[in-house]
Specification:
The complex is a heterodimer of chains A (505) and B (146). Chain A has 505 residues and is mainly alpha-helical. Chain A has 2 domains: 276 residues, no CATH class; 220 residues, no CATH class. Helices cover 79% and strands 2% of the residues of chain A. In chain A, helix 10 runs antiparallel to helix 12, helix 12 packs antiparallel against helix 16 and helix 19 runs parallel beside helix 21. In chain B, helix 2 packs antiparallel against helix 3 and helix 3 packs antiparallel against helix 4. Chain B has a domain of 82 residues. The longest helix of chain B has 31 residues. Chain B is 71% helix and 0% strand. With 146 residues, chain B is mainly alpha-helical. The chains are: A mainly alpha (505), B mainly alpha (146).
Chain lengths: 505, 146
């Protein structure tokens, strides 16, 4: 075996380990020269993006990758499994990580000049945690990575606004600890009845227990559902989310809003479909029905609360709660079209919400304003930034030609197929509410002129901040026009595999 | 009556873990003092550790150390061991719990430096009334008027 092949074999592991080691080397890099930190992060994120693309390419061409850590055979040893679902999510994590990384250069230099080294160190640890959660095929390993990503997120949020950021971080820590403890307890229950920690092995062992109406398995499912609902910020359990998103540094907000909840949703899908079976979750316990109704409630209430906000980051945070509802609605419908809509919305929401938070950060960088009613005249001052906001905002509303339309259309079709008219009404109503809260911002940016309008000079954000925003906005339109590619190559076979057999593809 | 007592006594380890967990959960929700919340979180996590460890117990089992027979050969099949895996898992979980506590305590120090208190209601009142620069609502109202 040549040297290149030897490295290629270990790529699933390296995707997780590279940012981990690089994160711990960050203090040395920063000690040599503080300016090197950003280049180091860029290099690592680029390598991670290449490895994530290579993983997904291998999965599409040759099928699921199984990687045994240390050569121990799966039911005993830890196994990393990459199939279409987590290959897809990994690529999103690596891509958003790279975009936010490019953006962070100017933003962090201004917002946290004394904390550059710890910020980037924790940044890479967060990527490690999210990658690990996504790739691993072992549920205890999953718990450890969940805690790595959560602890990094607490640290990132605490670096934000003085006082408010720390309190938000502490509240998130308490909620997050409860969630992680519930998940740990659920893992313990499943281990007690199956004696295994491997996801695939567990799925083979569990069905015998369903028929006997085993109470331990039911309790485990309940613990997982509540734990993950806290992690993704599903409506009644969302209390930590708005404060955490609002008071984090701009860069961290974009990263956490774009990725943390998406990976939580991925984990929920993984546990529902690949640890338990769809038959158990949907038919025997009807847990999915509760999930779908909670999602519908989240869609409406998230949008209504977003209208009431005057801080742009807080408005976007509440909008996140409603968007998470869309994804879970698609999953809960559990038919082919609804599922595709939900999975596509993971991709869409990562792009749109990341772009919107980056814009909010760029405006804050230039003007120090976060209040929507003070945005008057910004359209003239920062034309590119506000144009990105317009595109991402329209996509969030669901205008045809943008990504948001495609996923909402699929979700509506999926609801119709189930005969659930009420969900179509929910989606339409929420789109109208989206128009209300985004229009307020558009209105202030372009049509609200302060008195001294002729004195406004063009004062655009730095190029390194514009590039990722423009790329994300362009992708919002690209995938709106060409949604066929992700749907045909990834999401269609994936949805079929998830719903059909219940076994991972 | 005696049946209920026997029912509880037979699985007393689980009853202890559930009781401890609820004590911890209560402290995390109801206590206003931030340090007490962290202590509650610790009790909660320790209760889960206890559950895992009691899960590993095998009746008449001994410590999972490989023993040698008289002729020097392994005698693993002659001795009953307790299950070592949950112990190993909990070692990892203890590390996680310690790091969570460390982060939480560091945050509490920061909170004390900014607000001068670790009582939740005092902090909330401080954010709302005493110092407008820490209260988002007041800050935005001020900004909006300018």
């Amino acid at each position: 075996m040549s040297g290149f092949d030897m490295i290629m074999v270990h790529i699933p592991l390296l995707t997780v380990v590279t940012p981990l080691i690089a994160g711990f080397l960050m203090p040395i890099v920063g000690w040599i020269d503080r300016k090197l930190c950003w280049y180091w992060v860029m290099a690592i994120m680029f390598v991670v993006l290449l490895m994530a693309s290579s993983n997904l390419y291998t999965v599409i061409t040759t099928g699921t990758i199984h990687y045994e850590l240390g050569g121990w055979k799966p039911p005993v040893g830890i196994e990393y499994v990459i199939d279409l679902l987590n290959g897809f999510v990994c690529l999103i994590i690596a891509f958003i990580g790279l975009m936010v990384g490019i953006y962070s250069k100017e933003s962090i230099t201004k917002e946290l000049p004394n904390k550059i080294i710890p910020f980037y160190s924790v940044f890479l640890l967060l990527i490690t945690g999210l990658m690990g959660m996504t790739i691993t095929g072992d549920i205890f390993n999953f718990y450890v990575f969940l805690e790595i990503s959560s602890l990094s997120a607490y640290a990132l949020i605490a670096m934000g606004d003085r006082g408010d950021g720390v309190v938000a971080s502490f509240n998130y820590l308490i909620m997050g600890t409860v969630a992680a403890s519930f998940i740990l307890l659920g893992i313990g229950y499943l281990y007690a009845v199956t004696g295994s920690l491997n996801m695939a092995d567990m799925q083979n062992l569990l069905p015998d227990l369903y028929n006997n109406n085993n109470k331990v398995v039911l309790a485990a499912l309940a613990f997982f559902m509540v734990g993950f609902s806290i992690k993704v910020g599903l409506f009644p359990l969302h209390a930590w989310l708005p404060d955490a998103y609002t008071h984090a540094p701009s860069t961290a907000s974009a990263l956490i809003a774009g990725l943390m909840t998406k990976v939580g949703v991925y984990a929920l899908i993984r546990f529902m479909f690949c640890v338990f079976t769809p038959a158990f979750v949907f038919d025997i316990t009807r847990m999915a029905e509760i999930l779908t109704w909670a999602a519908a409630l989240a869609i409406i209430i998230g949008s209504v609360l977003a209208i009431a906000q005057s801080d742009i980051k807080r408005m976007l945070a509440y909008s996140s709660i409603s968007q998470i509802g869309y994804i879970l609605l698609g999953i809960g419908l559990a038919n082919l079209i609804g599922m595709q809509g939900g999975l596509l919305h993971i991709l869409n929401h990562a792009f749109m919400k990341c772009a919107l938070f980056l814009v909010a950060g760029a405006i804050f960088y230039k003007t120090g304003i976060r209040n929507i009613y003070q945005f008057k005249g910004l359209g003239k001052k920062m034309p590119v930034t506000t144009l990105v906001f317009l595109i991402a905002g329209l996509s969030m509303i669901g205008i045809p030609g943008t990504v948001g339309f495609t996923s909402k259309y699929y979700l509506a079709l999926g609801s119709l197929e189930e005969g659930m008219w009420i969900f179509v009404i929910v989606i339409l109503l929420s789109s109208l509410l989206n128009i209300v809260y985004f229009w307020r911002v558009f209105d202030n940016i372009w049509f609200g002129h302060p008195h001294e309008v002729e004195h406004i000079k063009q004062d655009e954000a730095p190029v390194s901040m514009l590039i990722p925003m423009v790329i994300l906005a362009a992708l919002c339109i690209f995938f709106g026009l060409f949604a066929y590619y992700p749907l045909h190559y990834i999401l269609e076979p994936l949805s079929e595999a998830l719903i059909g057999s219940g076994v991972g593809p | 009556m005696s049946e209920i007592f026997e029912f509880i006594a037979a699985e007393y380890n689980y009853w202890i873990y559930v009781t401890l967990m609820m004590i911890g959960f209560y402290a995390m929700i109801a206590k206003k003092n931030l340090i007490k919340k962290v202590i509650g979180a610790n009790i909660f996590q320790t209760a889960i550790f206890l559950f895992y460890i009691s899960l590993a117990e095998v009746e008449g089992g001994t410590a999972p150390i490989l023993m040698h027979g008289h002729d020097g050969a392994h005698a693993a099949h002659e001795v009953i061991y307790v299950n070592p895996l949950p112990h190993v898992l909990i070692l990892t979980a203890i590390v996680v719990s310690v790091s969570t506590t460390a982060v939480a305590l560091a945050l509490i120090i920061k909170i004390y430096q900014v607000y001068g208190s670790i009582e939740e209601d005092v902090i909330l009142a401080y954010r709302k009334q005493l110092a407008p620069e820490f209260s988002e609502h007041a800050r935005q109202k001020q900004e909006g008027e300018q």
